[in-house]
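Hi C.,

You asked whether I'd gotten around to modeling the 205-residue construct. I have! Everything is below, sequence then structure, no commentary in between.
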Amino acid sequence: MADWIIDFISTGGYPAIAALMLLETIFPPIPSELVVPFAGFAAAQGRLDIWLVVISAFVGSVSGALVLYWVGKLIKDEKLEQFVQKHGRWLTLDVDDLRKSRRWFDRYSRTAVLFGRLIPAVRSLISIPAGITKMSIVSFFIFSAIGTAVWSSVLAWAGYLLGQDYERIRHIIDPVTSIVVLLVVVIYLYRLIFPRRKSGSAVTD
């Protein structure tokens, strides 16, 4: 994946960065930790402008976040609970979990969006509950934009400052990304095979 991403950025420039960051937000296995630092490295070589790299990454990432926000907003509460009741096992989720998570998000939505945009994987998924809980689009955009600006700037400047060392580091990133994806799959399968028991749910004879 690393080589394909690097070739795509080298060929497509700023539009490629924005497109990859939009896809990364919607499809987390595409790692922003590889996309943006490489673009910063290309800027250090004079092939791109570092500020346009940051702007491109920001635009793509925020666009993807807004797409997921509207997906969440279109989901009706009743339909969501019905879906979880019917298919919750495959999501390792039940209606009680869903209601608890909604109450938590209602209380901490702004903080969750702001800091969630700084955490790999979470930065993509945080947009959906924001939409589901009908968080104000203005608040969502502002706090998502702040978190995204920080994330994009840090990654871009990291690649820029690493300079030639990035060539060595990038060979580490791809296997690390694969390990993270594998870990997510393992955790999912564990929760699927060994579901949590609710307190008081034990059956007595």
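If it helps when you're writing up: Residues 199-205 have pLDDT under 50 and may be disordered.

Thanks,
B.
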